[in-house]
Amino acid sequence: MNRSRHGRGRLMLQPSLLLIMQQGPAHGYELMERLKEFGLGDIDPSLIYRALHGLEAERLISSSWDEKDSQGPPRRVYHLTPNGQEMLAQHLEELKKIRQKIDEWIQAYESHMKTDK
């Protein structure tokens, strides 16, 4: 079961990061904490930072150093770009299609279970 949970996490990591940043800029630790809202709190931080680097390489997000609000060393703050906004909308459409397929599968299963009784 772990394998499927981690697979789901990878599937949802990019859209979840983009969605969080749509709500405002965030630093890495904040992103990790907010991922818990989507059931993704158990993803290895190294995977999150790799995803952030990939999103930045694709120009879906940008980052800058925040030296003011941190009591310790400067923190990198991630921002959603217009390209990231477009990708987020594409993720939404894809997730709606996946949800429809899941609903169809559940309906077929439940229908079959009723006929077996």
Outline the structure in words:
The chain is mainly α. The protein has one domain (2-116): Arc Repressor Mutant, subunit A, CATH 1.10.10. The chain is 66% helix and 12% strand. The protein has four helices and three strands. The chain has helices spanning 2-22, 28-35, 45-57, 82-116; strands at residues 26-27, 61-66, 75-80. The chain has a three-stranded antiparallel beta sheet. Helix 1 (2-22) crosses helix 4. The longest helix is centred in the last third of the chain and has 35 residues, at 82-116. The protein is elongated. It starts with a helix and ends with a helix. Mean pLDDT is 89; it is low at 1-5.
Output the helix-strand order: HEHHEEH
Average predicted confidence as pLDDT? 89
Q: Biggest sheet, open or closed, and with what strands and sense?
A: 3 strands, antiparallel
- Give the % helix: 55-70%
Organism: Pelolinea submarina
InterPro entries: Metal_resp_DNA-bind_regulator, Tscrpt_reg_PadR_N, WH-like_DNA-bd_sf, WH_DNA-bd_sf
Protein name: PadR family transcriptional regulator
Pfam families: PadR (PF03551)
Which terms would index this structure?
Metal_resp_DNA-bind_regulator, three-stranded antiparallel beta sheet, mainly alpha, PadR family transcriptional regulator, Arc Repressor Mutant, subunit A, disordered N terminus, 117 residues, WH_DNA-bd_sf, elongated, WH-like_DNA-bd_sf, 3 strands
